[in-house]
């Protein structure tokens, strides 16, 4: 499988055009039924142009997931985060992460992965490496740095990052995935983020018992 590129990668307008078309084709037809011919047709380019930018469907799907995570990744990489209050940073990170999860395109991509992975095992791997793993690593890096500054009491930053992201997903994300809820009120959104941050800090604030 092709190595997943950095989420900070700069693509040409033509490559972005192909990605826009590929996202539409994958979400409408499913990963298995979609073809590079269909992507080329939807993008209004030749199949050779598609292959000039992406080696195959795996690479295309990885790039779509990367792009969906790009804004969040940039926020987590902000250089002033190390100087900010931990609770404020966690609230910002949590708000952006939950917002990313609940975006219609993110939900649609997740549904495609769940539906198609039993037939195409590599799809689940591509999705995990391109999206969830990258997000987890960035949150883990922030938590580790905060612990080194004495702002958090953490012995396992990776597990702590899993805990924080898990608190954010919860029932709200599941309801959205299943179509049981179509719209989330700002009040419910903020309450979910605030609860995740406060619960995390109660577990990992300095002075808490291990």
Number of strands: 0
Portion of residues within helices: over 70%
Order of helices and strands: HHHHHHHHHH
Give Rg in angstroms.
Answer: 19 Å
Which percent range describes the beta-strand content?
under 5%
Mean pLDDT: 85
Features:
210 residues; mainly alpha; disordered N terminus
Explained architecture:
The chain is mainly alpha-helical and 210 residues long. It contains ten helices and no strands. The protein is elongated. The model is unreliable at 1-8 (pLDDT under 50).
What is this structure, in a nutshell?
It is built from ten helices and no strands.
Strand and helix layout:
Layout: H1 13-29, H2 36-43, H3 47-53, H4 57-76, H5 86-102, H6 104-116, H7 121-130, H8 132-148, H9 157-177, H10 186-204
Helix pairs in contact: 1-2, 1-4, 2-3, 4-5, 4-7, 4-8, 5-9, 5-10, 6-7, 8-9, 9-10
